[in-house]
């Protein structure tokens, strides 16, 4: 499923798509690109849930109102997001790329991926996908994009 999400993100991220793409047409295009139907359906459902989270009229049940609160991970989240991944999310919060709400959307989307453990590189892509799809997060998206892709050659100290 993650490969389908990556393909969609990389294919449509910089495209000028003003209208919604029909899911059947999209599924057909993905099938022609070599993805299997089950993975396509999972990826489309994942994206649909992301859209639902961002368009909700009321805050999700996990929305946090206290700015100084600290996130405690469930055992399932601890297994799927290793120390490096959790540290990366904390770092993104500290530099104001993520806020509590977008962090929770990222965690929700990570938990829906079919991989038992999420590698840091995959987590970075999930964060990009979430920020790209959450209205008002354009600045945070570009900040993360710059952070991830505009690294100078050589070691970073």
List the helices and strands and how they pair.
Layout: H1 2-12, H2 23-32, H3 37-55, H4 75-80, H5 83-94, H6 100-111, H7 120-133, H8 138-149
Characterization of the model:
With 157 residues, the chain is mainly alpha-helical. The chain has one domain. The chain contains eight helices and no strands. It has helices spanning 2-12, 23-32, 37-55, 75-80, 83-94, 100-111, 120-133, 138-149. Helix 2 (23-32) packs across helix 3 and helix 6 (100-111) crosses helix 7. The chain is globular. The model has no long low-confidence stretch (mean pLDDT 83).
Number of helices: 8
Shape: globular
User: Structurally, how many domains make up the residues?
Assistant: 1
Spatial gap, N to C terminus? 35 Å
Instruction: Assign the structural class, choosing from mainly alpha, mainly beta, alpha/beta, alpha+beta, or little secondary structure.
Output: mainly alpha
**Structure summary, number of beta strands:** 0
Fraction of residues in β-strands: under 5%
Order of helices and strands: HHHHHHHH
Low-confidence stretches: none
Radius of gyration: 16 Å
Largest sheet: none
Q: Could you report the average pLDDT, rounded to the nearest whole number?
A: 83
Fraction in helix: 55-70%
Summarize the entry for a quick read.
The protein is mainly α and 157 residues long. The chain is built from 8 helices and no strands.
């Amino acid at each position: 499923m993650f490969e389908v999400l990556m393909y969609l993100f990389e294919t449509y991220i910089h495209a000028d798509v003003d209208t919604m793409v029909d899911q059947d047409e999209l599924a057909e295009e993905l099938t022609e690109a070599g993805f299997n139907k089950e993975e396509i359906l999972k990826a489309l459902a994942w994206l649909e849930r992301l859209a639902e989270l961002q368009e909700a009229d009321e805050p999700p049940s996990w929305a946090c109102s206290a700015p100084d609160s600290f996130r405690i991970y469930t055992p399932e989240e601890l297994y799927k997001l290793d120390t490096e991944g959790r540290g990366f999310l904390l770092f993104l919060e500290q530099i104001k790329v993520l806020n509590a709400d977008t962090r929770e959307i990222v965690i929700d989307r990570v938990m829906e991926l079919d991989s038992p453990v999420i590698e840091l590189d995959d987590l970075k892509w999930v964060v990009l996908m979430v920020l790209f799809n959450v209205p008002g997060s354009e600045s945070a998206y570009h900040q993360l994009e710059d952070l991830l892709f505009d690294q100078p050659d050589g070691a970073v100290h």
